[in-house]
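Please review the protein record below. Tell me whether the encoded fold seems credible here:
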Amino acid sequence: MVYYKKRKTDRPPRGKVNENEMRAAVNAVLNGGTVYRVSKERGINLMTLKRYVRKCQINPSTVCKPNFITIQIFNNEEETSLSDYLLRASKLHYGLSTKTTLAYEFAMTLSKRISKSWKSLQIAGKQWLHGFMLRRNELSLRNPEATSMAPATAFNRYTVGEFFTNLKDVRLRHKFQPQNIYNVDETGLTTVQKPVKVIAEKGDKQVGRITSAERGTLVTVCCAVNAIGNSIPPFFIFPRVHFKGSMLNGGPPGCVGVANPSSWMNCAMFFEWMKHFIQNVKCSPANPVLLILDNHESHVSIVCLDLAKKNGITMLSFPPHCSHKLQPLDRSVYGPLKRYYNTACDDWVVSNPRPMTIYDIAAVVRKAYAQAFTLSNISAGFAVAGIEPFNPNVFSDNEFLASYVTDRPEPITANPFPGVIDPVSVIVHAPAFNQSLMSSLSSGPACSVLPIQPISDPVSQLSGVSINISHQVSLEKISESWIKEVH
C-alpha cells in the first residue's frame, strides 16, 4: 500500500536512482574507490550501494535497479471511471464523503487484491484514499452547501426554457431596451455582522471578534437594478410599528424607509415600493418598463398589478425556486453587498464602543451599497443569468444535473382517444381504468395516485444514490394495464 511520508532530508529516496548511475557507482567502488566516498559524492544511499556492490562481486551481470513493484489496486482506466462517478454524484448534489464504501465495493466487484483491513472494515484505507486524491488532480475535498430539494429539482431545462420563451415574447412584443429591463429583490441585513477574517497568532485555538450582540435585529432592504448597470435608491423595511425619519440618517441618497413589525415584505410594503420605483424610473404607458421579479405572494396583489398596469410596468416572474440561478441580484450583487456590509460593520464596531441598532444600519449600508452596486457587478448579473444579452443557452448541462434525479419524460401530446375532446374525463370515468387501478393497488405496494406517466430511472449509472422508487413500479403497471384494456 502506498504511503506518502513527508521527507525530512534532501537525500534522493530509495529506488529512485537511475540504473546507469547505480552501475557507474558500483564500477567506481570495484575500481578502488571507497563505498562511503562514492555514496557521498553521487548522493546514493550507503547501504543500497553496499548491497549492489556485494551482488555485483558475486554475479557481475546483476541488474542495478530495484526489483520491487508497487501494488496499485486500480489501474488508470478504473481510477478514471471512479473519479468520473464521484464528480457526477457531486454535480447531482449527492456527493460522496471519504467514509463511503464505493472504492471497497468497486474492488470487490472487480475481484481486486486488497488488504485485510479493507475486508475487515469494508472500506478503503486512508493511505489509499490519500494517494488517490494526489493522483487525481480534478478531485478535492469540499465543504458542501446545504441545498434543499425544491431548488435543486425545480431548476430543470423545461422550466428554464419556458421562462426564456416568455422573456423573448414580452421583449419582442413591447420592444424593451436594456435600460428598461429591471430586476427587483429583497435581502436581509442584521445588526450583528459575520466577522471577516483577522490576522492572529498561528496555533491559537480560538480567535474572537467583537459584535454588537449574540442575535441581531433584521432589517429588510429592497433594491432594483436595470440591465445597463443603474440602480434606484434602496427601500428599507424596519421592524417597528411607526416609521421615524431618524432611521435613515446617513443612508444612501434618495433612500426610502417604512415600518413593519415583522420587517418582512408584504403587499402593503411592496405597494409603497412600487410608488418609490415609479417615482425614480419615470415610467408610463408611453415609456414602458419590464420588471422581472420572483413570484412571492406580496408581489402579485391586485393593487400592485393595477398600479403596474396604469404606469406601463410589465411584470415577469421567475419560475418557482429558480431565482438562485436566474435572478441577477442574487448572482452578482447581493453577495458582494453582504461582504462589504460585514466589513463596514466591523469598522463601525471599532469606531463606536456601543451596540449597533437599527438606527445605524442605513449609514453602514451607504458605504457597502456604493461598493457593491457597481456597473460591472450589475451587468455581470444580467449576463450570467442570460437576460441581457439574451442567451437562453447560458446554462450548461452540468447545471441541470441536480434536477436529473426527478426528471420525467415529456407527456404524450397525441390524443389516445380519437373523437374525444377531453381525454381526462374519459380516464376518470373509464371502468377499465378504475378496475385496473384497484387491482394494481391491491397487488402492488402502496403508492400515491400521480399523473399517469412512465417514470424512467435516470440514475441507473449511479447505483450509490439511494432513491425511493417504490411507487414507480405501481404506476408503470397501472399505465400498462390501462392502455391494454382500453385498446
